[in-house]
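Quick start: load a record and inspect it. Here is Sulfotransferase:
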Amino acid sequence: MASNYESNSSSATSVESLLDELPKHKLFDICDIYQWEGFWYESRILEAALVFKSQFIARDDDFILASTVKTGTTWLKALCLSILHGNPDDKNKEEEILKKGSPHMHVPTIESMIFEENRYAIIEGMPSPRLIHTHLPYNFLSDSVKNSKCKIVYITRNPKDTFISWWYFMNSILRPNEEPFPLEKAFDCFSKGVYIHGPFFDHVLRYWNASLEMPERILFLTYEELKIDPTGQVKKLASFLGKSVDEVEVDDILWKCSFERLKNLEVNKNGYVPYNGLLNASFYRKGVIEDSRNYLTPDMEENLSRLCREKFQGSGLDLYLRR
Ligand code: A3P
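Running the structure step on this input writes:
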């Protein structure tokens, strides 16, 4: 199986010729992104995603976490790790899984690993039940994922806070020593869906609809619900993952995965995510809801609210909009 992924130099060539045909945009005036079947990708991620779609073999007991960017992925990874691999007795001991490595190290983002030397071997070699993550939209999941019994947990977030979190993050990785990319220009990209793994609304809606069709296989969570009702949401998540947790265990999981604690663990303050080179620390900023109030103009707020109303109309989906 691993050899299938490794022997893809011909697919790399075909992706290069494919890229010439695709709509292209320079994100933040720096990073080329390409539109494929309605969503935007960096070239290496698109190449990896095409291999993932055609070749990834899911196991029935896989847990696949899914999200678009800056919606609480790191938190969800940590929560699932603690639910599946933690216990109250390991509290603050060195063997606690969250002290042994960052959530992104333990739960690989699959399309970031494909084509990196030997990365797939890591995923292939992971013991069951595997806990893996993807930012890819629902239509990019392989038939094997869709046809297997594996479970998917999707997390999303109010698009206003997602946008501000994304703007900060992109500035930190693309323009670390420069003036931030103008908020207005970034907003234009985000609201038009022209950003990595965008459009936001289509990404969310497809997983939402799939979760309605297959609630036993796809759990749909929001960052805001986790903030507002952490105990209820963690119980729901644990039960979906096949673990029963009592009140003491839930409190322990929430404490271990709290923003301040994770942000200050040595493994998250230092170092890089091994497969994509991003700073571990870059995944922790403020960790609150409604921070976008401090940045968005009333017009921007109204623009995103209107888009939400239009895109989610009749879907039953509510993403904690203020207006
Ligand atoms: P902010 O930039 O609004 O602070 P992702 O993990 O999908 O990249 O999302 C990152 C966002 O989640 C950032 O939001 C980050 O601060 C927040 N976050 C990270 N860990 C968290 C945690 N344990 N609890 C709450 N929010 C967290």
